[in-house]
Design brief:
By secondary structure, the protein is α/β, with parallel strands linked by helices. It has 11 helices and 13 strands. Bound molecules: 2'-monophosphoadenosine-5'-diphosphate (ATR).
Length: 287
């Protein structure tokens, strides 16, 4: 029987998840489908019922449903529990399990692009304190980062995030600051990670002087549209190491694919190029 999976969100037409999963279904010659279903909040329950009845084997959950879906699952994984959000659901023993693979995707992307990125890391600056930041803070705590400084435009949002994750951070010091304090923290920082929405559509931070970072610092941006964000371009200009964010989107998809179709798929250059071409095509159509 053909296994059917989905991504649900509202809106959903921009999602690149169908491209990723269809590529892997074809590559592994599987009998499966993966469709994007535009799901307004009032229809979320219906989708869960369709998974219960066996119409679907599971799927991905994206904005704005990640938190609401958490409460509709029968069981949730430790990652999902800590984030109180799910982006992947699958069935086990007739129960719907909610999982969160964002942190996995973030780590797997850096592991692939910059092997050893996490060796001897003392201080990490995380820019932003929004929805996307949460899984990244947790992932960095799980890799035993010594010190994470969350710098955000609105200081109280950074503080609230640090308070929420303090209880998980046995070996990690969590500090906060205003984004204007970047130059103060930069001189002994090993990695800068942008988790904010700045960078989308070529937007940039007003004043962020990357020159105050050590020459060995790594600059990573989870924004992947454009793939070379102004922040990454600025880092390249002064010869800092960089890592782009497209791989996070690709890698976060892999654990769900394995749960539904039984194969752990590879994130290869061909897939990255395929998704990048689609992103560029959308951009060109808009221009
Ligand atoms: P998401 O859920 O996609 O992460 P979000 O929760 O709205 O989106 O968070 C967006 C992040 O980008 C926040 O950290 C936001 O800062 P504030 O907490 O001050 O709102 C940050 N952000 C958005 N636009 C920004 C800008 N122009 N300059 C600096 N930070 C910005």
């Amino acid at each position: 029987m053909t296994k059917k999976a989905f991504v649900i969100g509202h809106p959903i037409s921009h999602s690149k998840s169908p491209t990723i999963h269809k590529y892997w279904i074809a590559k592994h010659q599987l009998s499966g489908t993966y469709e994007a279903i535009n799901t307004p909040p009032e229809k979320l329950n219906e989708i869960f019922n369709d998974v219960r009845s066996g119409q679907y084997i599971g799927g991905n959950i994206t904005l704005p449903h990640k938190q609401a879906a958490f409460f509709l699952c029968d069981l949730t994984t430790p990652e999902a529990k800590k984030l109180k959000a799910v982006n992947t659901i699958f069935k086990k023993n007739n129960q719907i399990i909610g999982h969160n693979t964002d942190g996995y995707g973030f780590l797997a992307n850096l592991d692939q692009q910059i092997p050893d990125w996490d060796k001897n890391i003392k201080k990490i600056i995380v820019l932003g304190a929004g929805g996307a930041t949460r899984a990244i803070i947790l992932a960095l705590i799980n890799r035993n980062a010594n010190e994470i400084i969350i710098l955000n435009r609105t200081l109280k949002n950074a503080k609230s995030l640090a308070n929420q994750f303090e209880k998980f951070s046995k070996n990690t010091r969590l500090n906060t600051g205003h984004i204007e304090d970047f130059a103060k923290h930069a001189p002994n920082t090993d990695i800068v990670i942008n988790t904010s929405s700045v960078g989308l559509n070529n937007t940039s931070f007003d004043e962020l002087d990357l020159k105050s970072l050590p020459k060995t610092a790594l600059v990573h941006d989870i924004v992947y549209s454009p793939i070379n964000t102004p922040l990454l371009n600025a880092a390249k200009t002064i010869n800092l190491k960089t890592a782009d964010g497209l791989g996070m989107l690709l890698h976060q998809a892999a654990p769900g694919f394995e749960k539904w179709f039984g194969v752990f798929p590879e994130v290869n250059k061909e897939l990255k190029k395929l998704v990048l071409n689609e992103l560029n095509a959308v951009k060109n159509n808009k221009n």
